[in-house]
Amino acid sequence: MKNSLYIVIVGCGRLGSDLANRLSRIGHSVVVIDTNEDTFNDLSSDFSGFRIVGDATELAVLKEAKLKNADVFFATTHGDNVNLMVAQVARKLFNVPHVLARVFDPRREQVYNRLGIETICPTSVAAEMFLLAVASGRAAQGEAKS
Amino acid sequence: MKNSLYIVIVGCGRLGSDLANRLSRIGHSVVVIDTNEDTFNDLSSDFSGFRIVGDATELAVLKEAKLKNADVFFATTHGDNVNLMVAQVARKLFNVPHVLARVFDPRREQVYNRLGIETICPTSVAAEMFLLAVASGRAAQGEAKS
């Protein structure tokens, strides 16, 4: 991969804004899309990317984001269906090579994966971490004492 | 740690029910607490633990769950404040040695940790996974192709 990537992020909630800030800070070109302009308040003052107010399920908005030039596409809204839809469009219509989507319902992960979209499921990840804590006893009394 | 643990889980949503099913399956004694009885429908047919319909912010409910005998306590509701409160009670009043809480707002993690409660933040974890995908290029074209 190139050192500096062109990254389009849909959704500027906690996850989207955190990713945008951190990726911008390490030198990537970032475009963030959200329907709600207020969410851009979570972008840090040193965020050097672009903000687009709009609905990413509309092709015109994705074109405005120059999605065909993107190296990476992240779908991070709170709606699994929106994430699935825009991720598919990014993958199939704009041929973005790396497409990742957040999906809250673990049962939808398989559907995404069959469609060639990589998914990250916070619910599944959290479950694994809780189980790991039980298995390894890493939340030991010593660490957790008051 | 003992092989078979006594584990109390507050919240029987996707995360809580997944944990309850998996921990029960591997032989732990599990008690699940939720205010909404319908959530117990997500427990699998082989779940051998106990279900308590009640508000875990009430001491009587936690006593009913025999929290003082618990080895592990998980707070997995969708409310960060509820998770913080019940986790504190489990730690301070019932002396549960291992207390873990889900917290959606990463900014609250520090507060929890200062109070001796280990936290798992799905938002932070998801962010790390997205960043890792960018860094390693694991969402490579080969994997993601249609």
Tell me the greatest interface. A-B, 47 and 47 residues
Total helical segments of chain A: 6
Strand order of the largest sheet of chain A: 3-2-1-4-5-6
Which radius of gyration of chain A do the C-alpha atoms yield? 17 Å
What is the rounded distance between the termini of chain A? 46 Å
Structural classification of chain A: alpha/beta
> What is the percentage of strand-forming residues of chain A?
15-25%
Oligomer: homodimer
Sheet of most strands of chain A: 6 strands, parallel
Tell me the total number of β-strands of chain A.
6
Poorly predicted spans of chain A? 138-146
Written overview of the protein:
Chain A is 38% helix and 18% strand. In chain A, strand 1, helix 1 (14-25) and strand 2 form a beta-alpha-beta unit. Chain A contains six helices and six strands; from the N terminus they run βαββαβαβαβαα. By secondary structure, chain A is of the alpha/beta class. Chain A has helices at 14-25, 59-64, 80-92, 109-114, 122-136, 141-144; strands spanning 6-10, 29-34, 50-53, 72-75, 98-102, 118-120. Chain A is globular, with a radius of gyration of 17 Å. The longest helix of chain A is centred in the last third of the chain and has 15 residues, at 122-136. A six-stranded parallel β-sheet of chain A has the order 3-2-1-4-5-6, sandwiched between helices. Mean pLDDT of chain A is 88; it is low at 138-146. Chains A and B meet through helix 1, strand 5, helix 5 and helix 6 of A and helix 1, strand 5, helix 5 and helix 6 of B.
